[in-house]
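User: Hi! Is it possible to get a structure for several chains at once, not just one? Here's what I have:
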Amino acid sequence: MTEILKVKTTKHTSIVNITPQVRDAVRRSGVKEGLCIVYVPHTTACVFINEGADPDVVKDIVYTLESLIPWNDPNYEHGEGNSAAHIRSAVIGNSRIVPIIDGNLTLGTWEAIFLAEFDGPRERNVILKILKEA
Ligand code: ZN
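Assistant: Yes, the chains can be modeled jointly so their relative placement is included. Here is the combined structure:
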């Protein structure tokens, strides 16, 4: 089954914990054993899994991405002026796969699924494909 989550970002850089919505979608699907693919079809957004318990971890991830990939660089060629957002998203990637076991997403104790947007605010779609094991 497919579900599309609508996620509104509120800042230029926004990291949104979408774990509750993904867990709900898996529950609604009724799939007990399978895979949940989380995919973001946007070029300045991405999806990653990391610590959701301490918000400072996400802050440090953003800080490091901004340090490594600065917003302004005279060598960027993309005319829209948001090359850094594209690069930050490309480095992280636009999908993740989470196993479903016994009806639950098998995230680690401290793990959460995040949508990141690097050129917001925008409304974004997160496509969930929930696949039942054959
Ligand atoms: Zn662009």
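The two ends are 14 Å apart (CA to CA). The chain is about 25% helix and 35% strand.

User: Great, thank you!
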